[in-house]
Design a protein that fits this description.
The complex is a heterodimer. Chain A contains 20 helices and 21 strands. Chain A is α+β, with helices and mostly antiparallel strands. Chain A has two domains: 170 residues, Penicillin-binding protein 2a (Domain 2) (Alpha-Beta Complex), CATH 3.90.1310; 343 residues, Beta-lactamase (3-Layer(aba) Sandwich). In chain A, strands 2, 3, 4, 5, 10, 17 and 18 form a seven-stranded mixed sheet that branches. Chain A starts with a helix and ends with a helix. Chain B is mainly alpha-helical. Chain B has one domain. Classes of the chains: A alpha+beta, B mainly alpha.
Chain lengths: 601, 71
């Protein structure tokens, strides 16, 4: 039995051993194959992640660890000639909420209410009713402590923005202008010099940690430079805020007294044409432009074109004398106020008629007949050329937008009426600035000037760029002796003896001319009844003119005085007061005169 | 005993070095963050000063002075 068993177990045992060994080997092979496949798979995955999808994951990584911050440049300030700030920007902090990130608005509002010192209901309403799911402003110009406390809450953030300030309010609103939502200039100097004032912002990129705290600058390439924002340049104007205040205060009284449609005042340096003050009423508050009447945004000094009336008579007279058509000694017969002729109809006087008048007397009495005859003697070509040289009929190229060019038709289109009407200020349209320019030229000895408002630009690096208009290389528009006579004799007499008596000042000899022009109908058929533009333009002192002042009031209500009142009643008292205050102020602040006065004491 | 103490000391020493190395590695970032905070704070104070200056300008403007004189 045992031998059989022994014989039987020998060969059987070997077979089962072989079978087991084969099974073991198979398991090992399978296991190793599995390991190999797994590692190949991992290798393939690594290759995919590192090579094929590298850009995608780099971008995801960058998004996660990079954050960018826009840095807006500070908008440059606007200063007056004495360095007073007319407009400037400063940074304010706004506490805002991100409505989509706030799960419980009521709870957030109740936590935020004591921090911001606002009602919880109000905060909740702002969050829930916001149309923008990413941003709603809760408190503008919040203090630093409120900002720090508020930002600790989830869904609440703090944003720094630039806000434009106008410390002088609406004093020079038309000159300075205003900015819109994105700090873009929309009117006045803010618009005209928007590029220079804006500066250039940059965007800084940072590597951040999980709490979004910056760890280092993220520079995309080797040797890259971290840019800094370039702040806007500062603009220095020729305007003087004190003189602007005088002009606005005096003009406002008259504007309100006569319930006028509009009024304007311009004060200019007679020698250089620099604008010291420019007022247009009605005006507006530049910090609250959204609520202003759109009609109040018009700068009447630049946009209004009106017939100058008698104000242009001294200019025409100067041209006539310069061309030798008349002289100061001869007399002209003024037809006793009733001048008729073929081709030019009937010309009358405003008040009474006159006989023989000298050129000076024509201006003092503001005779229309006298001026018509002077115009006829000159002829169309000489008159047109002279008026063109004085700058009428075209834009000056002023530093503010919206300038009108006036209207002076070419002589080829003139009729017999034109040559007699233009000399006393009809059939020609001018702007206030053109009149000021013409009188500056009369006052400064006949030299050409170009009114300007911007004196200099101060760049962020502190360098100053003088941007006053270059001195015009033209000789004299009219001879100096003629301009001197017109100003110191004729126009001074207008104030001493004529229609400008209300502009007399004790301390200085004032020269000036009134103007009362009718307003043309909009359909072009004649003039509106009882609708006038009353003006007065003057300067002082006559012997050495320093300042020119123009005041113009449109459609004053004559029911106030119960009679017709012209430029001599409505405009000249205002101009005189502005002139007096300006001259006193300029003499008081003149460094040479102050030293002399101090030495004399 | 002595060798065990030495061994423990070496371990602690290396651990300390590693911790210090990690700490120093992030020093640059900490300094940068502190610098940014101070820069922003300085900028905020400058703006606060500028805002006060603008308030002074508003109070000393010709219109405001004349109004107070009238009152």
């Amino acid at each position: 039995m045992e031998a059989n068993d022994a014989r039987k177990s020998g060969p059987t045992r070997d077979a089962s051993c072989d079978k087991q060994a084969r099974r073991e080997r198979t398991r090992i092979v399978v296991f190793i194959s599995f390991i190999i496949v797994a590692f190949v798979g991992l290798g393939g995955r690594c290759y995919y992640l590192q090579c094929v999808a590298a850009d995608h994951y780099s971008e995801l990584s960058l998004d996660q660890r990079c954050s960018s911050l826009p840095l807006e440049a500070q908008r440059g300030p606007i200063l007056d000639s004495r360095g007073r700030v007319l407009a400037a920007s400063n940074q304010i902090r706004t506490v805002f909420a991100e409505p989509r990130a706030i799960a419980e608005p009521k709870e957030t509002a109740s936590q935020l209410a004591p921090i911001l010192d606002m009602g919880a209901h109000e905060i909740c309403r702002l969050i829930t009713e916001s149309r923008n799911p990413g941003y709603v402003a809760l408190q503008v110009d919040a203090t630093a402590s409120r900002c720090d406390a508020a930002r600790a809450l989830y869904g609440i953030g703090v944003q720094s923005t630039w806000r434009r300030h106008y410390p002088i309010g609406q004093l020079a609103s038309h000159v300075v202008g205003f900015t819109g939502r994105e700090n873009k200039g929309l009117g006045g100097i803010e618009h005209r010099f928007d590029t220079e004032l804006s500066g250039e912002g940059v965007r800084h990129a940072f590597n951040v940690d999980v709490h979004r705290r910056p760890l280092s600058y993220h520079v995309p390439q080797e040797g890259g430079v971290i840019a800094t924002p370039t702040n806007g340049s500062a603009i220095i104007l020729t305007l003087d805020a004190a003189i602007q205040q005088f002009a606005r205060e005096e003009l406002l009284k008259q504007y309100e007294k006569y319930s006028a449609e509009s009024a304007l005042a311009v004060v200019a340096d007679a020698q250089t044409g620099a604008i010291l003050a420019m007022v247009s009423l009605p005006d507006f508050d530049p910090t609250n432009v959204g609520r202003a009447n759109p009609d109040h945004l018009l700068n009447h000094v630049l946009t209004d074109q009106f017939e100058p009336g008698s104000m242009i008579k001294p200019v025409v007279t100067a041209i006539a004398m310069d061309t030798g058509v008349v002289n100061k000694y001869e007399t002209i017969f003024c037809e006793h106020g009733n001048y008729r002729g073929r081709g030019f109809g009937r010309i009358g006087e405003f008040d009474k008629g006159f006989g023989d008048l000298t050129v000076r007397e024509i201006l003092v009495n503001s005779s229309n007949v006298g001026m018509a005859k002077i115009g006829q003697r000159m002829g169309p070509e000489r008159l047109y050329e002279g008026l063109t040289l004085f700058g009428f009929g075209r834009r000056i190229g002023f530093d503010l937008p919206g300038e009108a060019e006036g209207l002076l038709r070419h002589p080829s289109t003139w009729t017999g009426y034109s040559i007699t009407r233009i000399p006393f200020g009809q059939e020609i349209s001018v702007t206030a600035l053109q009149m000021v320019r013409a009188y500056c030229m009369l006052a400064n000895g006949g030299r050409l000037v170009r009114p300007y408002l911007v004196k200099a630009l101060v760049q962020p690096d502190g360098s100053m760029v003088d941007i006053r208009p270059p001195a015009l290389r033209v000789g004299y528009v009219i001879k100096p002796e003629i301009s001197r006579w017109v100003v110191s004799e004729a126009l001074a007499s207008v104030v001493n003896e004529g229609t400008g008596k209300r502009a007399k000042l004790e301390k200085w000899q004032v020269f000036g001319k009134t103007g009362t022009a009718q307003i043309a109908r909009s359909d072009g058929r004649g003039y509106e009844p009882r609708a006038y533009v009353t003006s007065f333009i003057c300067g002082a002192p006559a012997e050495d003119p320093r300042v020119i002042v123009l005041v113009s009031v449109r459609r004053p209500d004559y029911a106030i005085e119960k009679r017709f009142t012209g430029g001599g009643t409505v405009a000249s008292p205002v101009a005189a007061r502005i002139l007096e205050r300006t001259m006193t102020y300029l003499e008081g602040t003149d460094p040479v005169k102050r030293t002399v006065a101090r030495a004399a004491r | 005993m002595t060798s065990r103490l030495c061994f423990a000391f070496v371990i602690f020493f290396f651990a300390g070095i590693l911790i210090l190395a990690v700490y120093l590695r992030s020093a640059n970032h900490r300094v940068f963050y502190t610098l940014r905070r101070q820069t922003i704070e300085q900028h905020r104070l400058q703006q606060e000063l500028w805002q006060k200056q603008l308030r002074v300008e508003a109070l000393t403007s010709p219109a405001a002075v004349l109004q107070r004189l009238d009152q």
